[in-house]
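re the bet — no i am not wrong, look at it urself. input seq straight from the record:
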Amino acid sequence: MEKSKPKIVYRFAIKRLALAKLLSSQGPRARRLGLSAHSTLTVCAVVVLVTGVMPSSAPPPPPPSAASIRGTVNIADCNDPDSPLPTWICREAPKALLPPGYPYYVGHDEPEMQFYSNTPGSGNNVQWKIRLPPTDPTPDQAGTKVANRQLYPTYWFSMALCDPESTPFGACTPNSDANTSQSGSAILELQFYPPGSSCPGDDSKWCASLTIDELTTNCGEPTTAAPITTDGTPGGPRLLMSPSDSIRIRIKDTANGLENDVEDLTSGTTGSMVASGANGFTQTTESSHAVDASATCPTNPFSYHPEYLTASTSHNGSWINANINFSFEIGHGELCGDTACSTKPDSDSDDTGCGTILGIGLCAGGDLDHDGTSYVADWPDGTANHPGSLIIGNVLDDGMGPLSFSGGSYQAAYGKVFFQPAGVKGAFYPFFSQAGTGRSCVFNFGNDIPGTTTNDFGKAAQYGTTITNPCTGAPIAKCKNTTVATDLNVCTAATASIDNGSFDSDGDALTMTQVPGGPYTLGTTSVTLTVTDTESLSNSCSARVRVIDRQPPTITCPMPVVQKRRP
């Protein structure tokens, strides 16, 4: 059990920065301040970070990376720049829920997809399959050749977890759809780190970690992180993966806690980690959930379990606004003027976390003003000087997205995909795109890839919209409003089609049903079209049928009438 006082920690960090500035101007007089040797060394380390002063004979070391951790790491507040983990490991938290006077930026941008399903098991037992990007171009300082590490430090797979000591501090029953928005939630992020992230043993490889974020009133955003290892222990050998490897991921609940399995299908090696108290995972039990500057932040061993049974549209945790999601963390790569980073990217406050990565000088802090590499079109686009894309498929190799365990097997149950709203700024914003159709359908991320991209969903305009998953083998219903004329000599139209090119994503024949099916009366009628394929998969959409009368009136004249006038 450990205790900390975050209010004091925040103020100390700010004071230490001020003290560092003082020392940088006072030089030898620092001893007269009465600092201990440890304090002097700590402050000097901060001075190096702030001023960027490094020996000219050697490039600076790479900035801190979550990929390099060994064993389980518990962080009182993962946004604290003095923590052992970089701040980009955190889930973006609503600013209104952060402690008063909170001095740190929480994250950058997290473009993501959320997958919806009402199938039991879709919220607590899922499988994914991805193919890692191919070997990056060797990056250069001029920015003409770009590696994935410059574009993002990580991407992750998430799941909402029960945590009654996390915001909003309500009771939470694991694996239950009875949980509400008042139930306390934490979030899993199974994070993958690209080459250049200091994965132990081989910086040219990919590696991964299981991380869990809580959110408190007084204690910031506590995080526990443990590496994915080949023996499943926090201190075991890291699972290392090579570019272009095919990876199968399983996230499921167990009696001991949430289990994450990562299987490299190309090399035949497997790693795992369980979010259990036995593996060092903790829960922060702050002394008060009300705002309290004197609150303490003890932690206790805790085993995490999924919050929901299903991934329906209403099951989004509380503050996390996520459940079965896939997300990139972008905006952490601005090129320095040289390898040693003696010339910072743009001399503003976001020039932090600077060092040498993959042989180039790079600042990997949060690019708060959106002026870095991630916001120009340096993303995967099929050209030789830009990196290749991650490929998101599924375990059955017949579509895209997670599979949920239901009825004794893993099935493609996620029919809807929501692109979470993003802070779209800068000259370019990366987006998800479809490659292939039907059973060969997968998703990429970055830019359009000529000859590969079949649908980019409006590019950056996709964020904030929901689509029917085009890669499940299910049909896609497409509707249009239609206007028809009444049939001859009646005031109705017997038929009217609202179909606008509905199709089946894997080529099956379709049966189409409209409700109501006609005849349609004069005026406007709302109609729903349902398309069903030979596998009994269906999809629906709605439109309006407008019936107008274009028949000219007819006049029927009586027989001639002879009238006589009396003289």
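see?? Confidence is low (pLDDT under 50) at residues 1-57. told u. also The CA atoms of residues 435 and 452 lie 5 Å apart. so pay up
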